[in-house]
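HUMAN: Mind making up another protein with tokenized structure?

ASSISTANT:
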Amino acid sequence: MGAKMTPLAQVKAEHGDKAKLVDKVLGVIDLGEGGKDEAKTRLAGVSNKKLLRLLSVGQTVKDKYGSTDKLAEAVATAAGKAKDGDYVTKLKGLAATQLLDLARRLAPAPAAKAPAEKKKPAPKAEAAPAKPAKKAPAKTAAKGGAKAKASAKAPAKKAPAKKPAAKGGKSSKK
């Protein structure tokens, strides 16, 4: 049973130190406005967990889509609004993490793969000849008709218990 690593332990194990991780993050994200030095100082103050997330998102965007603009267009296409220019422009203004989350939500869910044995229908057994239905005894049907049939189905009710008679016979009023 392995314990889950803390973000600091992950940074040290995978990247050596935080400065190297920041450099890797700067390599995969779009800087937009501002210089590399300013972005580096801002990212140095960010938590290790967020830096790890930014790196994974940045790598996914670069590998799967190429750039955030292409990712925005892919999200618009998946949403069925590829021809809506304002919508695409708005998507291009979102952060890469938000766009990737949208793309994952809009992507069709993968079908659950079941083992081949479960997909095959069970072989059909040959139909056995049907047994004749049992007929109700002739006596019941002849005597009471429908009432006799109903009473045969329902359990018999017990008669209420009688109260014992009072001793002394008649009560006298004086």
The two ends are 93 Å apart (CA to CA). The chain has ten helices and no strands.
